[in-house]
Amino acid sequence: MMPQGRGRHHSRRPDGHPCAKVRSGFVQGLRNTAPQHGRRAALWGLLIVLLGVAQTLLVLLALNYEDTRAQDRTDAVASALAAQVRQRLSRNVQSLQSLLWNDPDLAPSPATATCRRP
Fold first, then answer.
1. Whole-angstrom Cα distance, residue 115 to residue 118?
2. Which tens digits make up the pLDDT trace of 36-45?
């Protein structure tokens, strides 16, 4: 029989303990991560730089989009104003033509209309 408090896996030697392999693997892993620490820090730095670049590009694209929208609004207002001016000028020309049609004394005679001066 085994003494009380000691199981089959317990022993006084650290090599015999079931966690000894885990501990030795952990310590070995810590030794291997020392060279990777610089690499990991460089990767984190690169990630932060890339995030900064992406954020900057996002801001620039948003500003460009807002400028484009403002230009589109300005163009829409200008084209609407031009259409309105064109419409009013057409009405004025029609009004003048109707005045000339109704008053034959103001209308140019066919002889003077076709006559050209040198």
1. 10
2. 788 899 999 9
